[in-house]
Specification:
271 residues; two-stranded antiparallel sheet; alpha/beta; TIM Barrel; 44% helix; globular
């Protein structure tokens, strides 16, 4: 798979997507990277720590988050994307489900679309992704955590997102799937989808896991946001074992070390 000017080995390697939230109210790091200079320093640190992609978001998606206008979101993300593309040689993902934001982000140089609604909120996002011939990450999401058969329903929901993508013209080699930990799921369902994340392999697309510092970790360990690194790493290790390719995290260095160690053990076993 190619993202930007980089090739990603989906068969043999795992990659870290570093999170860059340009928001005052994100659940974990809201307000830290709002200025261009602060964001630039953080991007440099994440690259030095081993990030392969930077995911830029301008609106918090935490439970109970405050929605912002399209223009405000554009004003937050576009200067940051332009700064990254000017100063660093790394693919940039735009974390948005709104077509107006995605369009401006792609024009600014974003290399990938990360849609937390899997193209179901705004179908024009799928059309833009196809128009610009960019890769996308389709995340599973629901407004309510009500299921008849949890895993089967999740797969059916993802089927719908894939169908939207393909009807819009998105090519198979440009699709990544995300089970949506923390979105439209109960605590137990979040644990279940992490454990059974390999059920998403049925389509043959690479999988992205995003659990970083989320409430499922906080509830399990009874820890605040700034003490959830180890819990996140545990989910990353499970992901590597289950065949996940991409990991979206805040703590790049710690997670990439966990990935490398886990891969070393698994690769020795598979020789």
């Amino acid at each position: 798979m190619r993202i930007g000017n980089k090739s990603f080995d989906l068969s043999n390697k795992c990659y870290i997507m570093g999170i860059l939230n340009i928001t005052p109210d994100s659940f974990s790091d809201g307000g830290k990277w709002n200025s261009v200079e602060a964001a630039k320093c953080h991007v440099l640190n994440m690259i030095q720590d081993g990030a392969s992609i930077i995911d830029v978001g301008g609106e918090s998606t935490r439970p109970g988050h405050k929605k912002i206008s399209v223009n405000e979101e554009i004003e937050r993300v576009v200067p940051i994307i332009e700064m990254i593309k000017k100063n660093f040689d790394i693919p940039v993902s735009i974390d948005s489900y709104k077509s107006q934001v995605v369009n401006e982000a792609l024009k600014a140089g974003a290399d990938m679309v990360n849609d937390i609604w899997g193209f179901k909120y705004d179908i024009k996002v799928a059309e833009l992704t196809a128009k610009y011939q960019k890769p996308c990450c389709l995340m599973h999401n629901r407004k309510e955590s009500v299921y008849e058969n949890f895993l089967e329903d999740v797969k059916n929901d993802i089927d719908e997102s894939i169908e939207i993508a393909k009807k819009a013209g998105v090519e198979d080699d440009k699709i990544i799937l995300d089970p949506g930990v923390g979105f439209g799921k109960t605590y137990e369902q979040n644990l279940t989808i992490i454990n059974y994340i390999d059920c998403l392999k049925k389509w043959g697309y690479p999988i992205l896991l995003g659990t970083s510092r989320k409430s499922v970790i906080g509830k399990t360990l009874n820890l605040p946001l700034d003490q959830r690194a180890e819990g996140t790493i545990a989910t990353t290790v499970i992901g590597v074992v289950r065949g996940v390719t991409f990991f979206r995290v805040h703590d790049v260095k710690e997670n990439i070390r966990a990935v490398k160690m886990t891969k070393a053990i698994l690769d020795t076993y598979n020789k």
